[in-house]
Automatic annotation (TrEMBL):
<dbReference type="GO" id="GO:0006071">
    <property type="term" value="P:glycerol metabolic process"/>
</dbReference>
<dbReference type="InterPro" id="IPR036117">
    <property type="entry name" value="DhaL_dom_sf"/>
</dbReference>
<feature type="domain" description="DhaL">
    <location>
        <begin position="9"/>
        <end position="201"/>
    </location>
</feature>
<dbReference type="Pfam" id="PF21645">
    <property type="entry name" value="FakA-like_M"/>
</dbReference>
<dbReference type="InterPro" id="IPR019986">
    <property type="entry name" value="YloV-like"/>
</dbReference>
<protein>
    <recommendedName>
        <fullName>DhaL domain-containing protein</fullName>
    </recommendedName>
</protein>
<dbReference type="GO" id="GO:0004371">
    <property type="term" value="F:glycerone kinase activity"/>
</dbReference>
<dbReference type="InterPro" id="IPR004007">
    <property type="entry name" value="DhaL_dom"/>
</dbReference>
<dbReference type="Pfam" id="PF02734">
    <property type="entry name" value="Dak2"/>
</dbReference>
<dbReference type="Pfam" id="PF13684">
    <property type="entry name" value="FakA-like_C"/>
</dbReference>
<dbReference type="InterPro" id="IPR033470">
    <property type="entry name" value="FakA-like_C"/>
</dbReference>
<dbReference type="InterPro" id="IPR050270">
    <property type="entry name" value="DegV_domain_contain"/>
</dbReference>
<dbReference type="InterPro" id="IPR048394">
    <property type="entry name" value="FakA-like_M"/>
</dbReference>
Length: 556
């Protein structure tokens, strides 16, 4: 049977099915990662990115193409994590920009949307590399354009696009030697193919289980955990959550007025405005008052009211109160607008404290194990009251999300210093001079981070081969800026071997940050051995408290 167009309803089903499929296949995609470190892998990042959009779509009631496009684009942009997630969000952004004003999409419309998706994603990456998800996206766009000239039957076009995407994916090892060496295809390209396969299943009318995609909830939902609490501690009995669809920009004055009203009837308040959507959470004894007030600003959706005295075991209370307290502290800390502020991505109590001591205003908890989303970046930007904000991603897989947050910010000047490691981030902040202008400081920081060589020691989570190094699960790896430099069974010996390859005759300083799995005694012993091996160098040691990495070291 010929099918020449798809409408918004079908597109929504296809998108949700694509999201569901990559969620189901994420561990398989993770296994394709060449680098065997225990990190936030490609499959996880892509799944979390598209799931953020899928939840927005699930919350819509019979949307048209414009509403659907906005939910897909906005949800994926804000939820984007890791480089693969950011690229996926840009593909979705380009695709939806092309179709948002249509009521139905035909073969030519599909082709145009695929081309725009490819172009948008390539523009988002400073130095596009072939053999990646970008290559697969380009192959899809070219095939869709070719087929649109041959037939208008989507039932004929879609399987051919899928077949061609698989062919392109199979070629990625020939484009990237590291893939060929490891005997795998590109994980990001595989993730994109899984999204398309899921979408095609929905197009064919196959039964899809959407139960894992919960509709997007109020902002507390993602942050709330559950913990026991005595009923007597509950001052306000109803945990109330909803979203206001304003249909226009929610002004800062309106946000302040609404928050003030909510404070008069309850506590544990979270109120976050994003374009035409306002996410609200409040604890109150009269949810109706909150709802009545909210209705003066627009339509309500995703309303949820829990009786906390009945469900007092839920941690939602504890966490919401914590969030509210943090908001209060932040409000108190907000002073006069500064000229310059700093945001750093960090993890580990010791690392965080170092950043605070050198003047970083806001720390985003995250890194290798959990790449912060674009939305995490935007929230941090909102909290830093400064004209110019420098963002230090401190991980190569977070730079794109930081850039995306920069591009989405209108009222502040955002500068992303592309730090790939925490030591680079520390050096960048130390290099800042308040007497110099913004451009000069940016240049100084960029130059400073080039002088820092970083080594990180962790364990392998899978067997692989990289270059001449055979790596087995459980091996200790010493990773430098350009790849794996040492492999062994001893943390101390592998770390010392790594240092040998970082230190040169021009080196002056070795900085060592020991992680949460290294005791103080072990760290002191290791530092002593380093000092003995390099008597002419200054050795600076700190408790970093970071997970995953036994040692993070830098040489300058």
């Amino acid at each position: 049977m010929e099918i020449k167009t798809i409408n918004a309803d079908m597109l929504a089903k296809m998108f949700l099915a694509g999201a569901q499929n990559i969620e189901a296949k994420k561990e398989y995609i993770n296994e394709l990662n060449v680098f065997p470190v225990p990190d936030g892998d490609t499959g996880t990042n892509m799944s979390m990115t598209i799931m953020s959009a899928a939840k927005e779509v699930r919350a819509l009631d019979n949307p048209g193409m414009k509403e659907l496009s906005k939910a897909i684009s906005g949800g994926s942009l804000r939820g984007a994590r890791g480089n693969s997630g950011v690229i996926l969000s840009q593909l979705l952004r380009g695709f939806t920009k092309s179709i948002q004003d249509e009521t139905e999409i035909d073969a030519a419309g599909i082709a145009a949307a695929c081309i725009r998706a490819k172009e948008t994603a390539y523009k988002a990456v400073m130095k596009p590399k072939e053999g990646t998800i970008l290559t697969v996206a380009r192959g899809i766009a070219e095939k869709a354009e070719e087929l649109a000239f041959e037939t208008d039957d989507l039932a004929e076009i879609f399987p051919k696009i899928l077949d061609h995407a698989q062919e392109v994916l199979n070629q990625t090892p020939e484009m990237l030697p590291v893939l060929k060496e490891a005997g795998v295809v590109d994980s990001g390209g595989q993730g994109l193919l899984e999204v398309l396969r899921g979408a095609y299943d929905a197009f064919l009318g196959k039964e899809i289980d959407y139960s894992s995609i919960e509709p997007s909830a109020a902002p507390s939902a993602s942050a709330v955990r559950k913990a026991p609490m005595e009923e007597t501690d509950i001052k306000f009995g109803y945990c109330t959550e909803f979203i206001i669809l304003t249909g226009r920009e929610f002004s800062e004055q309106e946000e302040q007025d609404f928050k003030a009203y909510l404070e008069s009837i309850g506590d544990s308040i979270v109120c976050v405005a994003d374009d035409e959507v306002v996410k609200v959470h409040v604890h109150t004894n009269d949810p109706g008052l909150a709802i009545q007030k909210a209705l003066t600003y627009g339509q309500l959706t995703r309303m949820k009211i829990d009786n906390m005295r009945e469900e007092h075991h839920e941690r939602v209370i504890q966490e919401a109160e914590k969030l509210a307290a943090q908001e209060k502290v932040k409000k108190q800390e907000k002073k006069e607008r500064k000229k310059t502020g700093f945001i750093a991505v960090s993890i580990g109590e010791g690392m965080n404290e170092i950043f605070r001591e050198i003047g970083v205003d806001y720390i985003i908890e995250g890194g290798q194990t959990m790449n912060p989303s674009t939305d995490d970046m935007l929230q941090a930007i909102d909290e830093v009251n400064a004209d110019t904000i420098f963002i230090l991603p401190n991980n190569k897989n977070i730079v794109l999300a930081a850039n995306q947050a920069r591009d989405l910010t209108r009222d502040k000047d955002i500068i992303v210093i592309p730090t790939r490691t925490v030591p680079q981030g520390i050096t960048a902040v130390i290099s800042f001079s308040p007497e110099e202008d913004v451009d000069t400081n940016e240049q100084m920081m960029l130059e400073a981070i080039q002088t820092v060589k970083t080594g990180q020691v962790t364990y392998a989570v899978r067997d692989t081969r990289i270059g001449e190094k055979e790596i087995h699960e459980g091996d200790i790896m010493g990773i430098g800026d350009e790849g794996i430099l040492s492999v062994g069974s001893s943390i101390s010996e592998t770390s010392k071997e790594l240092l040998e390859k970082l230190v040169t005759e021009d080196s002056e300083l070795i900085s060592i940050y020991y992680g949460e799995d290294i005791s103080e005694e072990e760290a002191e012993r290791f530092v002593s051995e380093v000092e003995e091996a390099y008597p002419d160098l200054d050795v600076d040691a700190h408790r970093g408290g970071q997970p995953i990495y036994y040692y993070v070291m830098s040489v300058e």
